[in-house]
Amino acid sequence: MTRTILVTGGAGFIGSHLADHLLARGYAVRALDALEPQVHPGGRPPAYLDPRVELRVGRVSDRAALEKALEGVWGVVHLASAVGVGQSMYEIARYTEANVLDTAVFLEVLSRRKDKPKRLVAASSMSLYGEGLYRCAACAADQSPVLRPAEQLKARRWELECASCAGPMEPRPTPETKLPYPTSVYSINKRDQEEMCLAVGRAYKIPTVALRFFNAFGSRQALSNPYTGVAAIFAGRLLNGRPPVIFEDGRQSRDFIHVSELVAGIRTALEREDVAFEALNLGSGRPISVIEVALALAKALGTPIAPSVLGEFREGDTRHCYADMAKTERLLGFTAKMTFDEGLAELLAWMRTQKPEDKGDAALEELRRHNLTG
Ligand code: UD1
Fold it and tell me: Which residues span the domain enclosing 156?
């Protein structure tokens, strides 16, 4: 019998790719999506959404809409969230409502149903770690530093310094055992979402897995949204003949995972019924610096535009974090295999069809207005 999967946020960047991936594997897909105008211009469903996806328009906190959307569903993937890290620092109430309160209602509805879903996969985020794990070679010790002090950032000393010897530290792969230290309202919301889903799932016997997504990139990243991820922002600027604007010195790194691999990881988590009540990293396991992203995109586009390195920092930003994928590989048997350049090629091929507007300046101005850069 065909299994139906409900994807909250199913019209979005990750949700729509997940829908395609599930449809191709014989699942039926229902999406519950609020079609937020910041992401979906005019609140219209995106053209890329497969017509076989049964789209229900509404927030997950709309109890009646959610009850209906859950009818006959085997598994749920909860992706619906507001996702701008910087924006969450000045739209604090809106983010907390959309990410925490809406998830609370979603869980209440789920937990009270007679026919509960057999699986719940919740989208968590690497941002809950704050800084990743580091190692001081001189002291031969792993460290989990908190945010860089304000004076250090003012002095433009970007790298993390050892708590014992003040020497430089190297980033290490970050395992799930590293204590969370969320540094933005968004990442606090994501930690709450993760813990709420796991706790309620456990209490009501809904086998739940929380996946800590690292930086997803690829086609359909919301180009109209100035708070979209850095790869799409940079590509949009280059395609408009403008230099990418880089915070700090550009050597900060992230773990970029192409969306096609991310959704394969989500589907694996849905299907592995022996794995429950776990939080698992979902990244590529490899760090790429922000300047490398800008240079790789310029090379792929064949444009000589050099990035503009601002030497300013964005409030709440962390320096390095990349996934230790050992637990995910062990429990789910999942590894991402695509190279970063292959992923960028897919993003660019799509962006060339989109005539992207460049909204990067507007986002930067907004952060400055709220004193969230330095
Ligand atoms: C991103 C996601 C977040 C997700 C997390 C983990 C977005 C907006 N945020 O957060 O939802 O939970 O990954 O998957 O997609 N940068 C520049 N110039 C710019 C923009 C960014 O230098 O114009 C730098 C930032 O300072 C940062 C890095 O690029 O060091 C990554 O920033 P961003 O793409 O916003 O992602 P995260 O904050 O890591």
Answer: 133-173
363 and 235 housed in the same domain: yes
d(CA 342, CA 314): 29
In this prediction, residue 205 carries a pLDDT of 97
Any atom of ligand 1 within 6 Å of the Cβ of 247:
yes
The DSSP secondary-structure symbol of 98 reads I
CATH classification of the domain holding 317: 3.40.50.720
Q: Is the CB of 255 under 6 A from ligand 1?
A: no
Kindly report, residue by residue over 157-172, the tens digit of the pLDDT. Answer: 999 999 999 999 999 9
* Surface-to-core class of residue 272, CB atoms within 10 Å of its CB (0-12 exposed, 13-18 middle, 19+ buried): middle
Provide the whole-model pTM. Answer: 0.95
Domain contains 289? yes
- pLDDT tens digit sequence for 310-329: 999 988 889 999 999 999 99
Minimum CA distance residue for ligand 1 atom 11: 83
H/E segment holding residue 75 = strand 75-78
Cα 30 to ligand 1 centroid, rounded to whole Å? 29
Q: Is the CB of 83 under 6 A from ligand 1?
A: yes
In the chain, the number of structural domains is 2
| Three-class secondary structure of residue 282 per DSSP | strand
Pocket of ligand 1, candidates 187, 253, 254, 313: which has the most ligand atoms within 8 Å of its Cβ, to mutate? 254
